[in-house]
Every structure is written in structure tokens, then in C-alpha cells.
Amino acid sequence: MQDLASAPRDAFRGVRFVLTDMDDTLTHEGRLSGATYAALEKLHDMAFRVIVVTAAPAGWCDQMARMWPIDGVIGENGGFIFRRGENRGLLRDFWHGADQRAELREIGDRIRARVPDATLADDQPFRLSSIAFARPENPNTRAAILAAMREAGLRATENNLWVLGWLGDFDKLAMTRRVLTDVADDEICYTGDSENDAPMFRTFRHTIGMSTVRDQALSSYPRWITRSPGGAGFVEAAEAVLASNSARASGRADR
Fold this sequence. Notes:
By secondary structure, this protein is α/β, with parallel strands linked by helices. It has helices spanning about 35-45, 60-65, 100-115, 140-150, 170-180, 200-205, 230-245, and strands at about 1-5, 15-20, 25-30, 30, 50-55, 70-75, 80-85, 90-95, 130-135, 155-160, 160-165, 190, 205-210, 225. The protein has two domains: about 1-95 and about 170-245, 3-Layer(aba) Sandwich (Rossmann fold), CATH 3.40.50.1000; about 100-165, Hypothetical Protein Ta0175, Chain: A, domain 2 (Alpha-Beta Complex). About 30% of the residues lie in helices and about 20% in strands. It has a nine-stranded mixed β-sheet with strand order 1-14-13-12-2-5-6-7-8, with helices on both faces. The protein has a three-stranded antiparallel β-sheet with strand order 9-11-10. The mean pLDDT is about 95.
């Protein structure tokens, strides 16, 4: 990892898509600042395609896709993408074609019986394609939840908030590939901060981690790292992308 401030001015030239994690990447201590929202809006107004790629539940993603200055939200670690449609409506595309709540609920009950300290995340009622447990402080409990998920046939990972599981061969990267079929890797810049961002860090050339990445043991790390955590770090990343593409004509093509 290298300090983003040391990146050449043209390091991100040719980037057209900015994909970003949300929790502790756009937010800091659970809050989205005005400066971070303004950075999203500036990218959007300068004709970059901005997609949030998050483990957050469908209920949160619905609001973001409807109201934020972005082009869509890949949610629940790749289970779906929500995009704004006509007349303020929402287009929903699921990896499996539909939600899987009933099956996941039954698996969740079995995991809680096996790991008594496992607690479902308080946003679980708003999830459609994943199951999330509040990330416990005890690493042994986290490992036990992950093991129980995998033995139940789920794919599983964790981030700074949740231990996550889902049915099917998807993750952030797989859904990104499905959505951006005709986009070259060099046209994408990804920002994130957690283990569930590792597949994106491994794959794309243009990757930026928030400063908190330094304190984590990840299976793959980003190429660049910001000096600030969370949303302030994302502002640094947005400014670097904008600076590399300063000749880009302002204004969205779809306006």
C-alpha cells in the first residue's frame, strides 16, 4: 500500500466508474458527512458513474438508490442491485431472481442454536438475500459463526459491523462483473476498508483503502491508502480521481 497523497496526478486517468463500499468508507462512526455527500455529488455531476457496493441491507439500499446522487447500489454483498427507474420508481435485480428470506431464516435459527452468543444484526428484518449477525468482539465467537454458516452451505465473510452469510456463488465482485459487463477493469476505481472488499482489492488496478485498513488483517490490500478514516478518506479518493480527469467535460450525458 502507498500513501494516496504520493500518487501521480494522472494515476486515475481513464477512470469512468467509481465503486465504493459504504460503512466506514463513506461513513465515519455511523454518520455520513456533508463533505462526503458533496464528493459523491461532484463525481456524479462530472459524469462519473457512481455505484455503492455494500453489505448493507435492502432497506438501506432502497433509500440510497432512490435519493442519493449515484447510479445504483449493489447490496447485501452482491445479492442484488437497485437502480432508480422512471417516476422515482426503483428497478430491482436479484442474483437469484428473488429474495430468499424464508430459507435464510431457518438457517439462522440453526446457527443461533449452535452458537449461543450469536446475535442477529438489528437490521436483519430489512434483509432479502443475506443473513447478518452483529460482529462480536470475541474472535472465537466470530470464527464459530463463520464455521456454522459454512457448514450450513452458506458463503460467508465479515466486515467491521457484521458476520455475513448468503446462499449462492455471489459476492461484491461477482455482482459487479454481472452489472458492468462491457466495462474494462482500468475504467473502475474501488474504495473500501474491510475484508469483504478484498476480492475487489485483488482484482482492480485502481483501488483505494481508507486509513483504517492499516489496522486490519485482510486477505488482500488496496494499492493506495488515504490519510483519513471513513468519509474524509473517501473525499481524498474522490479528489484524486477528479484531479486525474480534470479535463473531463462537466455534465451528465443522461441529462
